[in-house]
Specification:
Blueprint (H helix, E strand, L loop, with lengths): L5 H21 L19 H23 L16 H11 L5 H20 L3 H5 L12 H8 L1 H20 L4
Helix pairs in contact: 1-4, 1-7, 2-4, 2-7, 6-7
Protein name: DinB superfamily protein
Length: 173
């Protein structure tokens, strides 16, 4: 039995977790999927979580596009540093409040597929070798890809599980 490669692991785990996330949302009755949780947390409903994932996919795609063209991308975003992620994530949240859950699922499903295609376009060596690409600075593509897929999907599943528990307990009005 051969060992699974880092690329294959990233692709399979990412797909499995993304599908689990969608199944979790789909397990909630349709009439309750757009309900919000009464919380002080930033993400109050499934749409908020899905648009958060979508925007981080979009940022990864921008980093990748700029980095592969020889530029040094502004990571995480222009005008933001890693130490002010809370402010960046709040700005992301604010910018997607007019989207529906269905729109958010379509957008994140498409961005998930685009990120998968980026991963598929690389060899294991390109993905796991630190500093293989100048724009990844001291790390490797794997770290960027994993942070924006498998690890982020783990976070999203936890968020959506809490939301699902809350909204399914809500009485019909």
């Amino acid at each position: 039995m051969s060992e699974i490669s880092p690329k294959e692991k990233l692709l399979s785990e990412g797909q499995e977790k993304f599908e689990s996330l969608l199944q979790l949302i789909n397990s909630v009755p349709p009439r309750k999927r757009s309900l919000s949780v009464d919380t002080s947390e930033r993400d109050k409903n499934f749409r908020d979580v899905m648009m958060h994932l979508y925007e981080w996919h979009a940022m990864l795609e921008r980093w990748y596009r700029e980095g592969m063209s020889g530029d040094l991308p502004s990571i995480p975003a222009p005008g933001f540093k890693w130490n002010n992620l809370k402010k960046l994530n709040e700005r992301i949240w604010e910018s997607y409040q007019d989207f529906t859950l269905n729109q958010s699922i379509k957008k994140v499903t498409l961005s998930h597929e685009r990120v998968r295609m980026l991963i598929e376009s690389h060899t294991d060596e390109e993905i796991i070798t630190k500093k293989y690409y100048n724009w990844t600075i001291t790390t490797n593509l794997y770290a960027y890809f994993a942070a924006n897929t498998t690890k982020h999907y783990d976070w999203a599943i936890k968020q959506c599980d809490n939301i699902a528990k809350f909204v399914t307990e809500q009485k019909e009005v």
